[in-house]
Amino acid sequence: MTEAAASSLALTDEIKALVNGSLANGTPMLLAAVSPAGKPVLSFRGSVQTYSDDQLGLWARHSQGGTLEAIAANPNVVLVYRSPTTPVLQFHGRARIATDEAERKRVFENAPEREQASDPERRGAAIIVDLDRIEGVVRVGPDGPVFCRLVRAAS
Question: For residue 93, which of 34, 123, 126, 136 sits 20 to 30 Å off, Cα-Cα?
């Protein structure tokens, strides 16, 4: 067993490439949130992208709905990445709906073109996730699974 990293939370280039290429690779990420009524809300998201070394961004094409209501009520979310070569990565964090126009613009413009084409008038909402923890198996190498456990340093 190999550990990809264990000390602080900074997305590696390998993880950034997986996230940023997820839709193009046919592996959109799954977002899990909790509704105001305490029920799970799951949705596949093709617009997930790295926003910074410790944040993800995504564009929700509809500015209202279950996912946004869930985030407004409880910011704790998990995003899951899985592909034929990456067994599973879980991204745990706190989501917020961006109201700053510069943040909205950046998230929209970094989304894949086909996601942008689905909301050409930019009526949707930008969501930014401050990551607290990333864990899982990045890949299986010749010596077995390459584990990842990145945790935000306590402040």
Answer: 123
